[in-house]
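#lab-general

N.A. 3:47 PM
ok so I finally got the sequence cleaned up, no stray characters, all 205 residues accounted for. can someone with queue access submit it? mine expired

B.Y. 3:52 PM
send it over

N.A. 3:53 PM
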Amino acid sequence: MKKDFQTLVSKAKKSRKGRKKLRYFLLIGAAAVLILIPTIFKAVELYEDAFMVKSKIKVDKIDFEKKSVIKPKYYGVDDKNQPYLIKANTATQQKENLVRLETVNGEITLNDKSKVKVRSNEGYVHTENEKKTDLYGAVYVHSDKGYEAWTEVAHIDFGKNTIFGPQKVKAKSDRGTATGQRFVLNYDTKIITLYGKPHLIITPN
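B.Y. 4:20 PM
back already:
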């Protein structure tokens, strides 16, 4: 194929008409390249987006067979510029704007340098709104300021500094333990509000 092309070019150079055809051929080829380059880059963008390879995300490797990424790390800041990090064993694209995480661990560093940590069996990240994460299965919330909570479902809204859940919750601090049917935790103010038959047991000093 390469020799045939070289022969064609050689013959074309020997005649005026051939040289015109050769220039026309080269111009068409150049135009095709210019048209294809944006298409190629667009395909790369779509491919990267499908595997969530964005500036705020780091991954160890991609599993092409399972269409998932290994050891993803999501970085961001909440509405008070407090940084957060969400890590998982794997992340798999479920829908166009929904990513499923397995074995989730998260951390929020507050402005007073204290940390709030969360973990769960699985979670979901909404790629159209990266400030929202849903956690499911053995959800655990811990603050190094002295409180912790256990539940089965929790939703994190980094835009509002809240962690809230619609199911039974047990919370514990140095002042005692409390239970409720649902909860809202403002991790910035460190205030947890329990709803639905709240019950408090105060631990004497």
